[in-house]
Amino acid sequence: MKKAVVLYSGGLDSTTCMAIAKSEGFAPYALSFSYGQRHTFELEQARKYAPQIGAVEHRIVDIDLRQFGGSALTADIEVPKGGVVEGEIPITYVPARNTIFLSYALAWAEVLGVADIYIGVNALDYSGYPDCRPEYIAAFEAMANLATKAGVEQRGLKIHTPLINLTKAETIATGLKLGIDYGLTHSCYDPTPVGHACGRCDSCQLRLKGFREVGQRDPVPYAIEVEQP
Q1: Residue 206 maps to a domain
Q2: Does residue 183 lie in a domain region?
Q3: Of 100, 118, 162, 228, which is most buried, counting CB atoms within 10 Å of its CB?
Q4: How far apart are CA 148 and CA 135, in angstroms?
Q5: Which residues, in sequence order, are CB contacts of 162 under 8 Å at separation 6+?
């Protein structure tokens, strides 16, 4: 199997992305980040279950985006629970996060001699983050092929975004066909101290909507009663 670096947070999308990479004939080298996020439950899931999801190797990189803040995920700002305002970038957007993550993935890919990087960004059922758009990914890929030894030597680097045009329901349906146990994932922005999902943040609402649309119960525990099939 060819190697691929897969950005893997422990969440629903990145887990599905890694399963897709494996199904497409790649040996996944999973890359996660402890970046000063407001909770570590998702990262703990990633650490625990990466091999079970399919990772050949799993690295966790420590960086501290709390030094800059500017997001409800990296500063003492309340996570909104009222849904996303259309046309506005929500406060849960972490400035430059995907650019930073992809840069680390690019560095590891060069060391491994890997030409393929997977990231689970989505441009449909998402929260309006600018670094989840197809034009951003295309621009980063072009930059990667200009700025690296691999690009100069004409080996090329490819950023794979298999979820970018899928709804959350389509992503979940794809993952279920690949045998993913979504009970091994975590998506909530603001979980309880014991790790139960809040059920009210935008990430929880998108996740629950996806499961309802495929007629399946979300297997993770919620802190409140939520509408389930």
Answers
A1: no
A2: yes
A3: 118
A4: 20
A5: 17, 20, 21, 118, 120
pTM of the model: 0.95
The domain that holds 45 is classified in CATH as 3.40.50.620
228 belongs to a structural domain: no
CA dihedral 172, 159, 28, 32 (to 10 degrees): -80
Residue 203 CA to residue 97 CA, distance in Å, equals 17
Task: For residues 4 and 158, give the distance between their C-alpha atoms in angstroms, rounded to a whole number.
Answer: 10
What is the distance between the terminal CA atoms of the chain, rounded to a whole angstrom? Answer: 38
Q: What residues pair up with 33 in beta bridges, in sequence order?
A: 61
pLDDT in tens, 112-170: 999 999 999 998 766 678 999 999 999 999 999 999 988 888 778 999 999 999 999 99
Cα separation, 197 vs 174, whole angstroms? 23
58 to each of 106, 119, 156, how far by Cα in Å? 15, 15, 24
pLDDT above 90: residue 83: no
Tell me, yes or no, whether 166 lies in a domain: yes
Q: Per the structure, how many domains does the chain have?
A: 1
Cα 169 versus chain centre, distance: 16
pLDDT in tens, 61-81: 999 999 999 999 999 999 999
Inform me whether the pLDDT recorded for 48 exceeds 80: yes
Please give the residue range of the domain that contains residue 79: 2-187
Best CA proximity match to 35, nearest among 84, 6, 80, 70: 70
